[in-house]
Design a protein that fits this description.
The chain has 391 residues and is α/β, with parallel strands linked by helices. It is 29% helix and 21% strand. The strands form two sheets. Strands 1, 2, 3, 4, 5, 6, 7, 8, 9 and 10 form a ten-stranded mixed sheet that branches. A four-stranded antiparallel sheet has the order 11-12-13-14. Strand 6, helix 4 and strand 7 form a beta-alpha-beta unit. It is globular, with a radius of gyration of 21 Å.
């Protein structure tokens, strides 16, 4: 793919960072910047930053197109990690004549990066860009699990045009459909209609209220461990911590909590793309939100550097196995705990119409799911996965 035709590169000069007293150890001197006149091989990178200043379908947030460079200014003033990681900043995507053109080009770019084993960090722009991210997996004919960190479900009506608050229905109705599961982390009940909440339940999608997650933030880890892509709408963060968004409220995740969510996403061996959306610099206060997003990216990369590759199950000696008979479950529930990381999985059987076992799906879970099974209870996480896989 010829990226020189698709991106406007950024430089420290264009970001107005060269005149500042930057420490040469900061990320500004650490990251590779894409230069179409001397292009680097994309395979030399592990992570690519992709700015998408697109806001035409962002609901009441036209200024989110200004977000990518503002985020960069804060991110590049941070210090790097103890472990080396190869990051390339591709610059900002050249927008299409129509929003559909932008979706098409962005999905092509992400698909190419996925094939080259490079993780794109997408800096939006509107949250509708998550639809283009999904289409990249569709083009590669890969089944995808999506996690959205968002205060709302962004379902939209069946015939409603795609918008930042109405794109999920397009993923669900897309044919052929490659969406295996969708999970929302941090929704706020009073910001979603009862009909949309019921529809999410009927589709066997996972939904987790922000209060439930905040009580035990560790429960986020198995959810994002099952994701191929994560989209983070900054409206999921409470307004006092992220004033640069027109759609957030007084409630939501705290800044340190959203950074922990990002670290869990980064450490997931399966996750291959990450997007941050709906930041409006014109509403920000003292760069508070852009600084927070810079920290979110930093923690995502730190998580990436701690990946353990313990989700393959090729050598069962690397896991402790527990089989528990539970009332209401099919036969017994089988749990696995990694000896390396202490992370948990549970088997979910996929049953044929004649009741034969077709295959086993290894669902990431937490120790809490195991303890529930020991108390003769089946977690909602297991039931939703079983119903969806055997629907």
């Amino acid at each position: 793919m010829d990226y020189s035709l698709l991106f406007n590169p950024v430089t420290l000069s264009s970001l107005d960072l060269t005149d500042r007293a930057l420490d040469p150890q900061q990320l500004a001197s650490y990251v590779m910047f894409y230069n179409p006149e001397a292009p680097v091989d994309l395979q030399e990178a592990q992570i690519a930053i992709v700015g998408v200043p697109e806001s035409r379908n962002s609901y009441r947030n036209g200024s989110c197109s200004l977000a990518p460079d503002e985020i960069r200014r804060q991110f590049y003033q941070l210090y790097p990690w103890q472990t080396q990681v190869r990051i390339i900043d591709m610059g900002n995507l050249i927008l299409g004549k129509t929003i559909e053109d932008t979706y098409e080009v962005l999905s092509d770019v992400i698909a190419d990066m996925l094939e080259n084993k490079v993780i794109p960090i997408i800096l939006g722009g509107g949250n509708d860009l998550a639809f283009a991210n999904y289409r990249a997996y569709e083009k590669l004919e890969k089944v995808v699990n999506i996690v959205a960190v968002d205060s709302c479900f962004d379902l939209g009506a069946e015939n409603q045009p795609i918008r930042s608050d109405a794109y999920l229905n397009k993923m669900v109705l897309q044919q052929p459909n490659f969406l295996l599961n969708y999970a929302n982390i941090g929704y706020q009940c009073y910001m979603n209609s009862p009909e949309s909440i019921k529809l999410m339940e009927d589709l066997f999608f996972e939904t987790y209220r922000v209060g439930t997650m905040r009580v035990n933030i560790e429960e986020v880890e198995p959810i994002v461990r099952n994701a191929d892509m994560v989209s983070l709408d900054i409206s999921a963060v409470r307004r006092p911590d992220a004033p640069g968004c027109p759609h957030n409220s007084s409630n939501g995740f705290y800044g340190e909590e959203i950074c922990q969510v990002a670290k869990y996403a980064g450490v997931s061996d399966k996750l291959s793309s990450f997007g941050i959306y709906e930041y409006d610099p014109t509403l920000d206060y003292n760069n508070q939100t852009s600084q927070l997003i810079g920290h979110i990216i930093w923690y995502f990369v730190e998580g990436y550097l701690h990946r353990q590759q313990d989700n393959q199950f090729k050598n069962r000696q690397n896991y402790r196995q527990y089989s528990i008979a539970v009332s209401g479950a099919l036969d017994e529930m089988v749990f696995y705990c990694s000896r390396k990381t202490e992370r948990w999985w549970v088997e979910v059987p996929i049953i044929s119409k004649n009741k034969d076992l077709v295959q086993k799906y290894y669902l990431p879970c937490s120790k809490r799911d195991y303890k529930l099974a020991c108390d003769d209870k089946v977690s909602d996480r297991w039931w939703k996965a079983y119903n969806k896989l055997n629907h």
